[in-house]
Every structure is written in structure tokens, then in C-alpha cells.
Inverse folding.
């Protein structure tokens, strides 16, 4: 089966690239994002390695705002990639559902909602914050459900049940609907057993369907009754990547997810660390993987190594994306990185360095993100975005720094700001 795409783009096209990636991930493709000026020789090599290649000649320029048209993906990307393939007409329908429902915006912001919920549960936050998050979650749920119903209707009407990509999108939307519904305290909308039956049917037809095994793992993790099955799903996906394809860099995200499973579900930090190390070996410029490595180094009290990983993260975010092109999630990681750097320096009793890092984190927490400006959408999602970068914990640590080097006036100033 054909399931691997390489996206080659310049760093100023960061948000547009995410727009493209989210659609293909939703429809079951593995998509690798390369940010560089690629020579003709490299392009030829990549073309031989991947099933499809998307470059700027295909997707256009960064001045195009996707949400202004509901046919951008079809006209600029899908027609070029799939050409005369039978699946082209179906991909046109799926892209229309994706674009008309502005799923990109809700899929991407939902990740921020998940981050806030994990670290700041609704029951532990003030009323205004709780209302904002619930509003954002309800909006996501509404959009997901509408897109799901349209996808299901198409599958019913097309007679042949739709291709693997169409079926995958339906199951993925059900998984996401359940996830948001659970965050809202409403319970599951779709039964785990039925979702597993559908995904197992796809995997029986295409055993090498990597995203299928990956999604099956996610579905199992979300239900305690099936959570132990998730490990096998992720391992099978990794096995397919390493045996079927010569270019194994794409397996990095699978090792990362298996590491998260061991860390969050099994509470096995040793196994998690092994997976993060494998992921980092395959993809050395992933800020998410590097952040996990930094946390693991801190756990082993290897402070200097953790600092080096943080510096690598900031270097990647600067060189690969540029400070003016960071997406919302990338800016959050930039904030988290400076906050972690502050903690590391504080532990080493390097108080001025810690203070500097916390101040950088503060500045980032107040910086508007072009993700919302370019799309012309903000509202509750942008407010939730800023909630992902809280200031109070930074001011608390800044008070400690000021007291350590004897600046009582600065300590009082930070304390007032923390209370405010």
C-alpha cells in the first residue's frame, strides 16, 4: 500500500505545512516534514524513498491562507499527488469535509487543550479559566461530530464502503470525539469494542498499515479494559516501519509514542527512556523528543546534560522554524524549555542564569502567536493557548532567585506580580 509522504518546504511556510500535514495524518498517511532547501539530487533520492513528495511547486506560496478556500487541498495538492488514481475523487470529498469544517484549526488547538487538562485539571482552576476551556472543548466536539457525520454519510452513499483512508478518518474522528467527550466528563460516545472491530478489519486487509496499528494503540490506551493491548500495537507499527521501509527515520514518532505509553500508562521510566533514546537516534532535531531527553537527564540528576538538550531545542526552534514562524504548540515548547532551563540553573545554584531563563519564559508567555493572526481566528482558543504558559510559577521561582542573591526589592516586586 502507498502510505508515506514527504513534505519539503521552507521555514516561512510552517503554518501552511501544518495545515497540509494534519489532513494527511487524519486520513491515515505517514508524513515527514523536511525544512530545507533541497538539491535536485536529494529530491530524486527522496522521490525514490517515499510514495509521494510535496514541495513548493505543488503547494504554492506562504501568502495563501487555506481557510479562504474549500478547494485548496484538492486543487493544489491532491490533483498533483494522486492524478489518475482511483482514490482521487474520494480524497477530494475528504479534503472538502476537512476544509469546510476548518478541522485544521480544531485539530491543532485540541492538542493545547489536552496539555492544559493534563497539567491543570478543570477542578483545580478558577471559574473563568474553566469556562474558557469548556467553551473551546465544546466547539471542538461540535466540529468533530459534524465532520464525522459527513464522513459516515459519504461511506454509506458510496456503496463500496470507501477506501482504507476514508474508513481510517471515520475511526480517527470517533477516537477524537471520545477523547474530547471524556475531557468534558461526558463519557464515551462510541464503544471501544466497535472501533477496534473496524480498525481490525482494515488491518486484516492491509497488515502493513502503520497508522492503523498506531491508532489501534491510541484507542486501547483510552480504555482501561484494553490498555495492555496498546504496547503490541505500537511495537507492530515500529516493526513494519523498520522492515518494510529502508528509511527508518519515520519510525521516530512511533518510538516516541511507545515511550509515552511506558511513561504514562506502565509507569516504567526505564522502558520509556529506552524508547526516547531510540527516537532521538532516528530523528535528532525533534523538539518534542529532545524535551523528553532533557526531562530524563534531569531525573538522573545529570543537570549539565539536561541543559545541553534544552539548548538544542531552542536551536532547533530558531533555525528550523524561526521565532516569527512558530506555531502555537512550538511556542509552548519554547516556554517550557526556558522554564526547565530556569529550574536546572536554580538546582545548580546559578541564580542569575535561572533568573534570566525565567524572564525569557515570561516574555514568551506574553508574545502573541502568528498562528492566530495569519488565520484570523482567536477567541477562546487563543486564551487557552496563553493558559498553557502560566506566569505565576515563574514569578514564584523568580522570588527565590532574588532572595538568594540578596535583592529584597526585586523579590517584593516579583511577589506582587505573582499575586496580581
Amino acid at each position: 500500500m502507498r502510505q508515506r509522504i514527504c513534505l519539503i518546504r521552507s521555514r516561512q511556510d510552517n503554518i501552511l505545512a501544518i495545515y497540509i500535514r494534519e489532513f494527511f495524518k487524519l486520513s491515515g498517511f505517514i508524513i515527514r516534514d523536511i525544512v530545507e532547501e533541497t538539491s535536485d539530487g536529494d529530491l530524486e533520492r527522496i522521490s525514490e524513498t517515499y510514495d509521494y513528495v510535496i514541495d513548493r511547486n505543488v503547494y504554492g506560496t506562504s501568502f495563501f491562507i487555506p481557510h479562504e478556500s474549500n478547494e485548496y487541498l484538492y486543487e493544489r495538492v491532491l490533483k498533483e499527488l494522486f492524478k489518475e488514481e482511483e482514490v482521487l475523487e474520494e480524497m477530494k470529498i475528504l479534503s472538502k469535509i476537512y476544509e469546510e469544517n476548518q478541522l485544521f484549526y480544531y485539530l491543532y488547538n485540541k492538542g493545547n487543550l489536552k496539555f492544559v487538562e493534563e497539567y491543570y485539571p478543570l477542578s483545580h482552576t478558577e471559574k473563568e479559566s474553566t469556562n474558557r476551556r469548556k467553551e473551546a472543548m465544546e466547539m471542538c466536539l461540535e466540529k468533530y461530530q459534524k465532520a464525522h457525520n459527513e464522513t459516515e454519510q459519504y461511506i454509506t452513499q458510496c456503496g463500496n464502503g470507501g477506501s482504507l483512508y476514508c474508513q481510517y478518518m471515520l475511526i480517527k474522528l470517533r477516537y477524537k470525539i471520545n477523547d474530547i467527550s471524556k475531557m468534558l466528563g461526558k463519557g464515551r460516545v462510541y464503544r471501544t469494542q466497535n472501533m477496534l472491530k473496524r480498525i481490525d478489519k482494515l488491518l486484516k486487509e492491509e497488515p502493513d498499515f502503520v497508522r492503523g496499528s498506531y491508532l489501534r494503540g491510541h484507542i486501547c490506551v483510552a480504555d482501561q479494559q484494553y490498555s495492555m493491548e496498546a504496547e503490541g500495537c505500537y511495537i507492530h507499527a515500529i516493526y513494519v516501519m523498520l522492515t518494510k521501509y529502508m528509511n527508518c527515520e519515520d519510525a521516530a514518532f512511533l518510538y516516541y509514542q511507545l515511550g509515552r505509553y511506558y511513561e504514562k500508562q506502565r509507569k516504567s521510566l526505564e522502558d520509556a527512556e529506552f524508547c526516547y533514546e531510540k527516537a532521538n537516534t532516528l530523528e535528532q532535531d525533534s523538539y518534542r523528543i529532545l524535551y523528553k531527553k532533557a526531562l530524563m537527564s534531569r531525573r538522573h540528576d545529570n543537570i549539565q546534560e539536561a541543559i545541553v538538550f534544552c539548548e538544542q531545542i531552542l536551536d532547533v526552534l530558531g533555525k528550523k522554524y524561526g521565532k516569527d514562524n512558530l506555531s502555537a504548540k512550538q511556542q509552548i515548547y519554547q516556554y517550557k524549555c526556558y522554564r526547565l532551563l530556569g529550574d536546572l540553573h536554580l538546582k545548580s545554584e546559578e541564580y542569575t542564569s535561572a533568573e534570566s531563563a525565567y524572564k525569557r519564559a515570561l516574555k514568551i508567555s506574553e508574545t502573541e502567536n502568528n498562528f492566530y493572526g495569519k488565520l484570523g481566528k482567536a477567541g477562546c482558543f487563543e486564551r487557552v493557548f496563553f493558559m498553557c504558559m502560566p506566569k505565576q510559577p515563574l514569578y514564584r521561582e523568580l522570588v527565590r532567585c532574588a532572595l538568594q542573591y540578596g535583592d529584597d526589592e526585586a523579590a517584593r516586586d516579583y511577589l506582587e506580580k505573582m499575586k496580581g
